Amino acid sequence: MASSFGHLFRIATWGESHGGGIGVVIDGCPPNLDLSETDIQCDLDRRRPGQSKIVTPRKEADRCEILSGVFQGKTLGTPIAILVRNEDQRPEAYTEMATAYRPSHADYTYDAKYGLRNWQGGGRASARETIGRVAAAAVAKKVLGHLAPSLEIVAYVKSIKDISGTVDPETIRFATVEANIVRSGDPSVVDAMIDLIQSVRAEGNSVGGVVECVARGVPPGWGEPVFDKLEADLAKAMMSLPATKGFEIGSGFAGTSLTGLEHNDEFYMEGDRVRTRTNRSGGIQGGISNGETIFFRVAFKPTATLLRSQATVSSEKKETELAARGRHDPCVLPRAVPMVEAMTALVLCDHALRQEALRLPGL
């Protein structure tokens, strides 16, 4: 179904932007893991609106409630249901969108598919849907902590519009990213990025950019051949996030300018471990992790909702003008960082469990 993701570690998200709440049901989490609402809340706090001067001012605490699947602080192995209630709904701010389609939003396409839509803040197309993903990923990280204790996932803003930072994927640390409100991996470009975001917000406009993500400590062997390649699942996961427009891993499109001799990652031995001297493959070969750092980039478009007048058409197929209101992020990148990390954790957790299921005890 369209709102489900994963195989062995499977999630289903539900809820609308201005409904009663947002939630997720997680199926396939192993039993006896320590889990509390506090474990989940820290990641939700990084995703929530109103956390800084450069994001949407919507005020939501995004406090999570575990409704099932956990007893006395331990996972039961049964489905885990998590709820976050909406508190700062303002559906009246979207009444104009009841009949006028917002350019580059999902208003028209939802009407074309379903014949009706929830126009209050975008319904399921709103980025508030990602609350469920981030909550589920906090549980996935608990599983990964047991199966691959050295695994570390760090995402960061690589660029906003034409301002790009310089970051070494092998050395970037979570603390560096969280030390600034842009979540840039390069402190030297933070002020310029903030100035840019504030200037486009003052104009009622928006900007996009690129989030880069690294996963260090992934063991060799995770992933599947052919259709469920690890990079294919990562690509699907990232492209399912709101506002995404591109995905590339390792050398990406730049690798097309190299010859095979230049691009190949030569193998060598480091003690008893097989290593590669370069990592243009991005840590994955043949759809399976090779033990090197996985790194990829995700392109996010400028926010579609703008605080300025735009030409559009109505649900009655008449040309009209939309004077957009409401609250929006002038740049989605800072809040997209934990979303990218979340989808990475969900994919890796699912493939880790699939790898565990593949091996018979004693063989």
Helix and strand topology:
Blueprint: E1 4-5, E2 10-15, E3 21-27, H1 37-47, E4 64-68, E5 70-71, E6 74-75, E7 80-85, H2 107-114, H3 130-147, E8 152-160, E9 163-164, H4 174-178, H5 190-202, E10 209-216, H6 230-239, E11 244-249, H7 260-263, E12 267-270, E13 273-276, E14 284-285, E15 288-289, E16 294-300, E17 309-313, E18 319-323, H8 333-358
Antiparallel strand pairs: 1-2, 2-3, 3-7, 4-7, 5-6, 8-9, 8-10, 10-16, 11-16, 12-13, 14-15, 17-18
Brief synopsis:
The protein is an alpha+beta fold and 363 residues long.
Which tags fit this structure?
single chain, 363 residues, alpha+beta, Chorismate synthase, AroC fold, five-stranded antiparallel sheet, 8 helices, 18 strands, 26% helix, globular
Strand content: 15-25%
Mean pLDDT: 93
Shape: globular
What is the CATH first-level class name? Alpha Beta
What characterizes the major β-sheet?
5 strands, antiparallel
Query: What series of H and E elements makes up the topology?
Result: EEEHEEEEHHEEHHEHEHEEEEEEEH
CATH architecture: 4-Layer Sandwich
Could you say how many structural domains there are in total?
A: 1
Number of H/I helices:
8
**CA gyration radius, whole angstroms:** 21 Å
* Quaternary organisation of the protein chains: single chain
Distance between the termini: 36 Å
**How helix-rich are the residues, as a percent range?**
25-40%
Briefly note the structural class of the backbone: alpha+beta
Which topology does CATH recognise?
Answer: Chorismate synthase, AroC fold
Poorly predicted runs of 5 or more residues = none
- Look at the structure and name the CATH superfamily: Chorismate synthase AroC
- How many beta-strand runs? 18
Spatially, the strands of the biggest sheet line up as: 1-2-3-7-4
